[in-house]
Amino acid sequence: MTHFRPHIERAIDLLGSQAKLAEAAKCSQQQISYLLRAPSITAEMALAIEAATGGQVSKSVLRPDIFQERGAA
To answer: pLDDT digit string (tens) for 29-68?
Structure first.
């Protein structure tokens, strides 16, 4: 299991389905399904999921190597 999978699952739960998350993130349902077993997630997808969830799933939990949490130095 990837370290970001629980966060993808949370985003799916928040939006109600893979298809709804995909629509909100402007990608395909297949891309969301792939993320559940992918070894990594792109920075662009992390940004899209953060926007789709209204910040409830942040880019910093999806890609902590690229994005720092607010207030972190």
So the answer is: 999 999 999 999 999 999 999 999 999 999 999 999 999 8
For 52, the 3-state DSSP assignment is: helix
Q: What is the 3-state secondary structure (H, E, C) of the chain?
A: CCCCHHHHHHHHHHHCCHHHHHHHHCCCHHHHHHHCCCCCCCHHHHHHHHHHCCCCCCHHHHCCCCCCCCCCC
Q: Which helix (H) or strand (E) holds 45?
A: helix 43-52
Q: For residue 62, what are its two tokens?
A: 């999806």
Instruction: Write the CATH number for 50.
Output: 1.10.260
- Counting the structural domains of the chain, the total is 1
The C-alpha angle with vertex 64 and arms to 8 and 3, in degrees rounded to 5, equals: 45
Say what the pTM is: 0.89
